[in-house]
Amino acid sequence: MPRTVTVAYLFPGQGSQFVGMGQGLFERFPDEVAAADVVLGYSIRRLCLDDPDQQLNQTAWTQPALFVVNALMYLDHIRRTGNRPSCTAGHSLGEYSALFAAGVFDFVTGVRLVRKRGELTARARGGGMAAVMGLTADRLRRVLQDTGLSRVELANMNSPEQVVITGPADDIARAESELLARGVRRYVRLPVSAAFHSSAMSGAAEQFGAFLDDFVVSNPRIPVISNVLAAPYPDGQVKALMVKQITSSVRWEETMLYLLRQPGMQMEELGPGRVLTGLLDRIRQASVQS
Predict the structure, then answer these.
(1) Which of 56, 126, 171, 235 is a good FRET partner for 182, with 20 to 30 A between their CA atoms?
(2) Pick the catalytic residue: 16, 86, 92, 97?
(3) Residue 184 within a domain
(4) 189: three-class secondary structure by DSSP
(5) Given the DSSP bridges, would you call strands 186-189 and 127-133 parallel, antiparallel or unpaired?
(6) Helix (H, G, I), strand (E, B) or coil at 137
(7) Which stretches of the chain are DSSP H helices?
(8) Is the pTM of this model over 0.90?
(9) Could you report the per-residue pLDDT of 150-165, keeping only the tens digit for each?
(10) How confident is the model at residue 4 (pLDDT cuts 50, 70, 90)?
(11) How many helices (H) and strands (E) would you count in the chain?
């Protein structure tokens, strides 16, 4: 990396949302909230705090809501502390917050991008996902091949023994008994209707790439650790990696190990919940024991 990293801000993705998130933030950033409402065509404050139509857990609404809350938490943190990050990272949708914090695009552009990303990925159907606990990613890949589940892909490598798989809904259903019989400690199907972060999202990725053509984005002002690479975004590759991220695995464990190798590294989660903090604790503990 081109500089000594001292603090990395981490931004959570889909699954961290809850009704009431962003409480106290919206009134502190009236201009940003008003701008988001114009782009989205609805009240982001009402969605996040009240969710009267039970939309917050639906992908097309979840993604903009999380981006806005993550971004406002970041802006509020900077306003209160003055502590700007040396680098950033975000889990899946959270990577857009990391890119915003690194100056790749402004707040309104970020809202426009995640709105389109949410709309496109929400259209996908026929897939499923499940969290698998108890096997490493390499072992899980071998088991999937050995059991004829070759259409199942690894969506998120979250920690040494937590991997999210993705693929056709019938294969995700069949995988449960196969994996539990081969040493998986826990298998949890996720409440989604599509195979996110898999080759099944190639159509959405292609359409998102065409949408991105109309935008100008900057190279990151500070390193942003890419989900696709588990390494910093190279200059000139922002758009290509934003598109590729839709079909690629989220290499979160490798991302955290990369940051842990940096001298003097501190990491702080900014967003609703503490999911990433919990994953980091497990990754750190496993790295010390190995």
Answers:
(1) 126
(2) 92
(3) yes
(4) strand
(5) antiparallel
(6) helix
(7) 30-40, 44-49, 59-81, 94-101, 107-122, 137-146, 169-180, 202-212, 238-244, 252-260, 275-289
(8) yes
(9) 999 999 999 998 999 9
(10) very low
(11) 11, 8
Q: Is position 2 within any domain?
A: no
Active-site option among 16, 197, 198, 249: 197
16: annotated active-site residue: no
Q: Which two tokens stand for residue 106?
A: 């402004």
In this prediction, residue 254 has a pLDDT band, given cuts at 50, 70 and 90, of very high
Residue 156 inside a domain? The answer is yes
Quote the domain boundaries for residue 115. Answer: 7-123+198-289
Which amino acid makes up residue 245?
Q
Question: Which domain CATH number covers 171?
Answer: 3.30.70.250
Average pLDDT (88-115) is 98
92 carries an active-site annotation: yes
Whether 12 and 97 share a structural domain: yes
Same domain, 115 and 133: no
d(Cα 245, Cα 16) in Å, to the nearest integer? 19
Residues 102 and 153 in one domain: no
* CATH number, domain containing residue 60: 3.40.366.10
Q: How many domains does the chain have?
A: 2
